[in-house]
Amino acid sequence: MSAVTKLYVLLCGYEVLPRSVSIRGGGDRFVMSVPISAYLLETHQGYVLFDTGLDPVLVRDPVLRQRHFADHGWEAPVVWPQHELLPQLKTIGIAPDDVSHVILSHAHFDHTGGLKDLPHVKVWLQQAEHHYAFKEAPHPGVVRADLDDPAIDWRLIDGDYDIMPGLSLLSTPGHTPGHQSARITLPNTGPALLVGDVGDWMANFDQEILPGEASDDTAALASIRRINRIRHDEGAMMFVCHDPDLIQSQRLAPDYYD
Length: 258
Ligand SMILES: [Zn+2]
Fold this sequence. Notes:
Blueprint: E1 4-18, E2 31-43, E3 46-50, H1 57-60, H2 62-68, H3 85-92, E4 99-103, H4 109-112, E5 122-126, H5 127-134, E6 153-157, E7 161-164, E8 167-171, E9 180-186, E10 190-194, H6 202-206, H7 217-234, E11 237-239, H8 246-249
The protein binds zinc ion (ZN).
């Protein structure tokens, strides 16, 4: 019996990016706006967040905006107050202390920025991803300030792991060295996959196209295929973090999937 009872889709902002960032060879002239999604699970063991969006201060503070975006030749994301994590949780009727677990798909800033708002959570990350985030000279997509609070209660794992009945972590490396996804089971929706950045868009899965950037192309393609196998074998619903079309038809919080 699954412990997961509801899934809320949180729209945490938009990134404006060349299509090639999401779709390998997709063209630099085609600049698209892609959502940043996170997911809140209601479970018998408290609320669980899968990814947390970005820290809005990175966008609003001119010094941080320069350091984390302009210096890399990137445009800063668009984050309106309605996209921020705590107001969205409040709309659903829950307080930060109600969240007991955070699962980070990987260590890029558009997934880690809300951690600082959730002081009493267990944070699930793959050991390999922790190493990637904390190595010297990390990838520019890692904002160390999101992750280096010594009070963070890390639960570092190595490979697949069952957190509770109906909520399992799947090792899906390739986009980054320790990327992970989640497989959940909902009472009415049935099986579902939260795929982080294994593929930014459904096209990455439907056509088995690599994302624009991967730390390991071979592993990234194997992870796309692993997700596809589960999706097809179990008829799992796909929750794809950055798909610009999918977000238009998804139920957004405070609406939910059960
Ligand atoms: Zn990423």
